[in-house]
Amino acid sequence: MTGTTQDDYTDRYARRVRGMTTSEIRALFAVASRPEVVSLAGGSPYVAALPLDAVGEMLGRLAAEEGTTSLQYGIGQGTAELREGICEVMSLSGIDASTGASPDDVVVTVGGQQALDLVARLFLDPGDVVLAEGPTYVGALGAFQAAQAQVRHVAMDADGLIPAALEAAIAETAGRAKFLYTIPTYQNPAGVTLTDERREQVLDICERAGLLVVEDDPYGTLSFAGDAPRPLRARRRDGVFYLSTFSKTFAPGLRVGWILAPHAVREKLVMASEAQILCPSAFAQAAVTKYLATMPWREQIKSYREIYRERRDALLDALEDLMPAGTTWTRPEGGLFVWATLPDGLDSKAMMPRAIAARVAYVPGTGFFADGSGAGHMRLNFSFPPPDRIREGVRRLAGVMEQELAMRAVFGTPTRHRRRGHAGADTPGPDLA
Amino acid sequence: MTGTTQDDYTDRYARRVRGMTTSEIRALFAVASRPEVVSLAGGSPYVAALPLDAVGEMLGRLAAEEGTTSLQYGIGQGTAELREGICEVMSLSGIDASTGASPDDVVVTVGGQQALDLVARLFLDPGDVVLAEGPTYVGALGAFQAAQAQVRHVAMDADGLIPAALEAAIAETAGRAKFLYTIPTYQNPAGVTLTDERREQVLDICERAGLLVVEDDPYGTLSFAGDAPRPLRARRRDGVFYLSTFSKTFAPGLRVGWILAPHAVREKLVMASEAQILCPSAFAQAAVTKYLATMPWREQIKSYREIYRERRDALLDALEDLMPAGTTWTRPEGGLFVWATLPDGLDSKAMMPRAIAARVAYVPGTGFFADGSGAGHMRLNFSFPPPDRIREGVRRLAGVMEQELAMRAVFGTPTRHRRRGHAGADTPGPDLA
């Protein structure tokens, strides 16, 4: 072990760094990746379902035959070919030329995370407010925190974001809210989907309030029964930024995502991205372009859907069969996640070390709220472990919860651990997010 | 053409966006990539010199045989295997365990640009000052500008940064300067190298002033005669951040760079990177790891050196033979760039449209100064075009300059165009940076 372990640089950091702290939970997640642990904590797609030999052959040819461009620098916005492919993908969801989508207004990013960070950079000054579902995506909280913005959560129910709660939040933060950040479809972590009716209401409310909408849609095509409701961007062209990624429909290891933005904003996004990464990987872009052009990508999405539906069913069945009374959970129609609410008095964060000892991992609900609330909840992933492992994980988890409840019966209800500050401190690393 | 072309979002942008403006020069660079134009503007390595078939075979196997990890998410810091490989690469330059370098203190980044941006994010508040060579790397100016910092340039001569000028700059910016940003070896764009003696002086000056040093070393191994002087980080462990990339020694299309940072700072860098991109590409990392482990990467660097030395000679010979009297230029011992100073009265920015019309491109000196000065200079690249194209490009450029000088003789000396504000506005896109 070398290097200074004490932080002699504390006085030198920029103000935006002050909210960044490491967490004891983070270390636990390193353990969660051990093979004996059933991890329901991750957000990893099941890439073993890809035709890896064919993908390998495709990637090999990209370097051998087109290496002088695929291994070279590219332009900051991303290649025209990939941006056209992205428009083809978006047209599946009703975002097409008739709703003003054009390759010229697409910016290729390093996964969905850079898309979020660029939007944060472009619009957020310190002290600005972002409205976001509560709970919401961990990585979005990280990007907004890095921009020194504050997140005001808006409540959801089984039908997604509650319009009246959105109106109340807008009134409360009058003039300080820059945008609504929302994952309307198969939300991460809640697993719920905004209904058609509410989509129109949310758009109307935001338009009336002059509030921009940042729509994050990584899971929209991963539906288990029929198609998801059309994205917000397919319904309204002005004031809606649409973000998505190939991480869930192809492979996250290439880090290719995108933003569809109004033309004038697109130029700023490109400049901001160049300051950050110069240009996205030409090789990764060529890989996705070739994948879309030569491989059965629509069938691959169907294959992911079937695998995840089976695993979702395994998780819901196991929860039904094994969870202690008083536990409730959402029933997602697509995506990767179930959000569970624990029996009163249980604390998902405090319970983590015991869960890891029992060889099961999840993400405590505290990671998904900017104010550190959420200890009564946890996120459970069903995309990565096979069905029998999912059931075994739930069995272990239920055992830990029963023990906790028994202790509670003996020693009384503990005060639930609450914490203020940056939620990211409680979050796993990206391999588990 | 779809999308709003007028910017209705002007009032909504964060303050950091205000300095970002597009430029008429930028559009010219799009033209510069046409095949009939000899581009001396780029910074692209000659990746055609790579054994592309072998690289392709390697990449294909990575997906086919290791796809379940290489196409999956990874950890924010980057893989342990690649960080070990990076330490092996750094040990070539004398940065090793004896000087406190450890894989644990390496953060893998999306090329050298993200490394710069992360350092900027970590240390720069609005109004903070960065000391940097004048001229300096375009992308660094972009990253510092995005952090709303100010750049105070420090003069160079043929031996690199002038220590007395550094001392004066430190005195002038007392308390506001956060770090010295320097490219000591084969500087971009100046092509000069800081001497051994001055390296010690610069380190002593910064240590006395309590000023951090950010050492950017993308070109250090690309020497044409003997090895370069040892990096600053090989001489001093405390307070020096070392940044480099595989873009110039392997391939930029994979976007893999790194930072070697003091241990405590490394943790913050990882958190900042996760907020920005979640994690670097597992595939790109596996590609570089495998490249270092199984292919003759040291021989490839030698091959790049020989190609670039021949092209540097071609450029210097052509300049000597063809440039109008009064033109001067640097004589780099490595790297990719020559910095030329024009005869009095010529303006490299104003001349660009005529150069493009004459089918030759360069980067005007104005791109490399935060205050828009530098119109009397230009950067010439010799890594990408073959020797005969370099000579043809210089011939065309000399013709344009002769015409300009003739006009000047007739119409008198024009006022040199000077501009205040963000230097990035005058810069080419990343394919040319």
Name its key features.
homodimer, 433 residues, Aspartate Aminotransferase, domain 1, Aspartate Aminotransferase, domain 2, 8-stranded mixed beta sheet, 4-stranded antiparallel beta sheet, 13 helices, 14% strand, globular, disordered N terminus
Describe the structure.
The structure is a homodimer of 433-residue chains. Chain A has helices at residues 24-32, 52-70, 80-91, 111-123, 138-146, 163-172, 196-209, 232-235, 263-277, 282-294, 297-322, 348-357, 387-411, and strands at 38-39, 106-109, 129-134, 150-157, 160-161, 177-182, 212-216, 240-245, 257-260, 328-329, 337-341, 360-361, 363-364, 377-381. Chain A has two domains: 17-49 and 299-410, Aspartate Aminotransferase, domain 1 (Alpha-Beta Complex); 52-294, Type I PLP-dependent aspartate aminotransferase-like (Major domain) (Aspartate Aminotransferase, domain 2), CATH 3.40.640.10. By secondary structure, chain A is an alpha/beta fold. Residues 1-5 and 418-425 of chain A have low confidence and may be disordered. The first copy, chain A, is built from 13 helices and 14 strands. An eight-stranded mixed β-sheet of chain A has the order 2-9-8-7-6-3-4-5, with helices on both faces. Chain A has a four-stranded antiparallel β-sheet with strand order 10-11-14-13. In chain A, strands 1-12 form a two-stranded parallel ribbon. Chains A and B meet through α2, α4, α5, α9 and α10 of A and α2, α4, α5, α9 and α10 of B. Chains A, B: One of its GO terms (biological process) is alpha-amino acid metabolic process. Chains A, B: Residues 414-433 are annotated as: Disordered. Chains A, B: Homodimer.
